[in-house]
Automatic annotation (TrEMBL), chains A, B:
<protein>
    <submittedName>
        <fullName>8-oxo-dGTP diphosphatase</fullName>
    </submittedName>
</protein>
<dbReference type="InterPro" id="IPR054105">
    <property type="entry name" value="WHD_NrtR"/>
</dbReference>
<dbReference type="InterPro" id="IPR036388">
    <property type="entry name" value="WH-like_DNA-bd_sf"/>
</dbReference>
<dbReference type="InterPro" id="IPR015797">
    <property type="entry name" value="NUDIX_hydrolase-like_dom_sf"/>
</dbReference>
<dbReference type="Pfam" id="PF21906">
    <property type="entry name" value="WHD_NrtR"/>
</dbReference>
<feature type="domain" description="Nudix hydrolase">
    <location>
        <begin position="10"/>
        <end position="147"/>
    </location>
</feature>
<dbReference type="InterPro" id="IPR000086">
    <property type="entry name" value="NUDIX_hydrolase_dom"/>
</dbReference>
<dbReference type="InterPro" id="IPR036390">
    <property type="entry name" value="WH_DNA-bd_sf"/>
</dbReference>
<dbReference type="Pfam" id="PF00293">
    <property type="entry name" value="NUDIX"/>
</dbReference>
DNA sequence: TTAATAGTGTCTATTAGACAATATGTC
DNA sequence: GACATATTGTCTAATAGACACTATTAA
């Protein structure tokens, strides 16, 4: 610990938010355009410093999201993603940032707030590929957030958080396909979802049909943890052969 | 973000360490006896404040571990466990703590360092049950660390980190049984482990036998991610609580 | 009717789980 | 020999994956 004359180090605490949503069956992340230096004009995750010593991290995250993107944030469930503390990650000095992850259903285009020149959804693949360049270490944070979402889709009912209050099983499959980045067999998916007790519940009668048979509607069920889990087809994990 | 006359809040950053090991087939956690207020004399996780503004979190964790428990810490791989930021968690003021998790093979009894009156291994069940009371919110942190270890045993080769350089399959099973807290069938376990390519590699010939047939020796293989995963028998699909 | 999507059924290869049988050491 | 633990084998129920088939709407 410390002796009595020890001087607390000057370290700033910040929060960064990875907000993911689905638009046109593609995974998108919420980015702002930075209005101040450093990285002025560059894209970045919403976020900022804790404002006073009693402010909680989650409270700060909600505040920044409201300030920068004017999103209705009450319904978002923030989950701790990790701490980013590379001493050189911010040119202003030592900034330790706690990243949060949240999943949003289809939301209206956010309006720019005060601090950020612009806020909007960007396809995650354009961020990961480097086509959209992010300030600080935010690309890494986005990558970590996506990987977390992929993993959580396997073991939790997180997928329903991407959907509105009611949804079809095909819409739910769209979520899995977009986040996992791979196609799934609709028939096996349907069977697996319906056999997982408490994952989804019937919600009224059928609806929707630009064409084809109308789909039944469901809503999120009480089950949070999926057991057995949804299985993410092997893309190429750590060197396992397709078949022995 | 901030305007130019904004005063940085006085927030202290700390690290806490959950070091788990196996002793007599029971899961143990490393605790120190606090030598200073608050909670002087109580058990607590090793940890402490960042000492200067350029010190990294992992570096601080290593330093504290060396100071307080005099453990050879070079081989420990620290993994971020989470951030604990309840404004009331420390009576001295606002202390935000980053917890790390590490798994240690059987280690010698640690010797007390300078800051801590005593350091030693304590069975985790006595911590979780409340028989051993911890300072601050450290009981919660230990619980989170154990749950993380349980989950990681399913999908990673973490179990080998509990073992020495070489081990038998039965010893590996002991790890799973102790961390998961449930018995496993040795024959099915044996088959499952051996069919997972790259999990373990043969290491010399047989050895060890107080009684019974000598077991073959193995060492950790290159595989880090287990696919398909080890399956934790369902005893209660305990839900994960949302991060506050 | 056709087109298009929703939903069901069926077969097969794999595997988790239960547990018998055999191997190899010490006493 | 008895005993204890390690290792292999075998049977069965469950299920992921592939895919044919039926159902229900709009045009």
């Amino acid at each position: 610990m410390s002796d009595d004359r020890w001087e607390p180090p000057a370290i700033l605490l910040a929060v960064d938010l990875v907000i993911l949503t689905l638009r046109d069956s593609r995974l998108h992340v919420l980015l702002v355009e930075r209005g101040i230096e450093p990285y002025k004009g560059a894209h970045a995750l919403p976020g900022g410093f804790l404002q006073h010593s009693q402010e909680g991290l989650v409270a700060a995250a909600h505040r920044e999201l409201a300030e920068e993107a004017d999103l209705d944030v009450e319904t978002l469930r923030l989950e701790q993603l990790g701490v980013y503390d590379d001493p050189d990650r911010d040119p202003r000095g030592r900034v330790v940032s706690v990243a949060f992850l949240a999943i949003a259903p289809r939301l209206p285009e956010p309006t720019a707030g005060t601090d950020a020149a612009d806020a909007g959804w960007h396809p995650t693949d354009r961020v990961l590929s480097g086509d959209v360049r992010l300030a600080f270490d935010h690309r890494r944070i986005v990558a970590d957030g996506i990987e977390r979402a992929r993993a959580k889709l396997e073991h939790s009912a997180l997928a329903t958080a991407f959907c509105g209050p009611t949804f079809t099983i095909t819409e739910l499959q769209d979520v899995y396909e977009a986040v996992w980045g791979m196609p799934l067999d609709p028939r096996n998916f349907y069977r697996k979802i319906k056999k997982t007790d408490g994952f989804i519940l019937p919600a009224g009668s059928a609806r929707k049909a630009a064409t084809g048979r109308p789909a039944r509607l469901f809503r999120a069920g009480p089950r949070e943890v999926l057991y057995p889990p949804m299985i993410r087809p092997v893309d190429s994990p750590n060197g396992k052969e397709p078949v022995q």
